[in-house]
Write a structure and sequence with these properties.
The complex is a heterodimer. The radius of gyration of chain A is 26 Å and the shape is elongated. Chain A has a six-stranded antiparallel beta sheet with strand order 1-10-9-4-3-2, with no helix packed on it. Chain A has a four-stranded antiparallel beta sheet with strand order 5-6-7-8, with no helix packed on it. Chain A has two domains: 45 residues; 102 residues, Rieske [2Fe-2S] iron-sulphur domain (Rieske Iron-sulfur Protein). In chain A, 23% of the residues lie in helices and 30% in strands. By secondary structure, chain A is α+β, with helices and mostly antiparallel strands. Chain B is mainly alpha-helical. The chains are: A alpha+beta, B mainly alpha. Chains A and B meet through α3 of A and α1 and α2 of B.
């Protein structure tokens, strides 16, 4: 049997008692966790009050002729820190979405064979037509970039976050 | 073990189980509210915060009950 080191024998600390958590301590821990959950909800509430309704700029993102059917183009909208992807799924069908997976923000890529967006991190799939979740851990659809076509040029005009 | 002591322990265990259930509901509430907020729905934040606060108060009440029972048992 392994003996305790000398300092443990000389100090009057009972390690078994130290590790023992009684019911009252456990209840206190649970109540503190509950208070933490409440603070989390309050944080969301304050954040929802402070977040202003965003105003999206009108921005040219691509020329129609530069994307072949089944092709895609990356762009940033509304800011340089927001990567997006534009896909041409048919001769006249175009769609653009945020490139951030709604699970953990990995970059999704377009797969023409399945006509879907795939997230390589946790295999979350989204429909290329409307951005809805097809499979995997994401709970929300990809935010859709609203497009406007003027002649041969495509413009991003806003973002639709989709249904929750 | 004395019957009154056993009753006290049962009451504490029951209160602990109830606190755990309330905590699980709060966790669900927080994740659901966060998902909803990230999806652009802000209207759920206020009722969720109120509900979470009520649950936290209920947990606190149960903790005070546990502490009271514990103190009584220790006095005997």
């Amino acid at each position: 049997m392994k003996r305790d080191p000398l300092w443990r024998e000389e100090l009057s600390i009972f390690s078994a008692d130290e590790k023992y958590v009684n019911r009252r301590q456990f209840a206190k821990f649970l109540v503190l966790t509950s208070a933490g959950m409440f603070v989390g909800n309050l944080w969301i509430l304050v954040k929802s009050w402070l977040t202003k309704t965003p105003v999206y700029p009108l921005r040219s993102i691509a020329k129609l002729g530069e994307i072949p059917v089944g092709g895609s183009k990356l762009f940033n909208y509304p800011t340089a820190a927001d990567p997006c992807i534009l896909v041409r799924t048919g001769e006249t069908e175009l769609a653009a979405f945020s490139q951030k997976c709604t699970h953990l923000s990995c970059a999704v890529y377009y797969k023409h064979e399945g006509n879907r967006f795939e997230c390589p991190c946790h295999e979350g799939y989204f429909a290329a037509k409307d951005g809805r979740v097809l499979q995997g851990p994401p709970q929300r659809p990809l935010p859709r970039i609203l497009l406007q076509q003027k002649g041969d040029e495509l413009f991003a005009v806003g973002i639709d976050l989709g249904e929750a | 073990m004395e019957p009154s002591h056993k009753r006290g322990l049962t009451a504490i265990d029951g209160a602990l189980a109830l606190i755990a259930i309330l905590l699980i509901i709060q966790m669900w509430l927080l994740t659901a509210t966060l998902e909803s907020f990230l999806a652009g729905h802000r209207e759920a934040a206020l009722p969720s915060a109120i509900a979470s606060g009520v649950l936290a108060l209920a947990c606190l009440g149960l903790y005070l009950f546990v502490r009271g029972v514990d103190r009584e048992e220790r006095k005997r």
